[in-house]
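User: I'm writing a short report section on ligand binding and want a predicted complex to refer to. Could you take this sequence and zinc ion and write out the structure as tokens? A short remark afterwards would be nice.
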Amino acid sequence: MGEKTRLRHVAVAVESIDAALPLWKALGLELRHTEDIPSEGVRTAHLTAGGGEVELLEPLAGDTPVGRFLERQGPGLHHIALEVPDLTTALQRCSAAGLEPLGGEVRDGTEGMRVAFFHPRDTGGVLLELVEPAPKPV
Ligand code: ZN
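Assistant: Sure. The structure tokens for the complex follow:
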């Protein structure tokens, strides 16, 4: 109890991060971090917006989750990420509420973070990501 969940980022699927960046920079956001996640077939860019972030997602190939998303519905809102202090505890709480993560598993996110996704059919139509911040390097 007393565990704080906060909005971490809103993710947008794009055909090209390079092509999308000028719009977000014009809106006043700053590019903080870019990283490829080969296991998910995606390139990511994180832009700061006040206390939260916008995450841009560009597929590394057509036959990837984000590639199929773009083919199905075009660029646009992809998921919402909530940060939790302890992913294991959060997943236990979700499981008790009948909510199981996509693929039943924890995945590797950007910056060494552990993440899990919930399918939109289980969440009222929104792909949800839970993010546990990586421990600070000592
Ligand atoms: Zn995300």
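A remark for your report: The chain has one domain: 6-132. The two ends are 27 Å apart (CA to CA).
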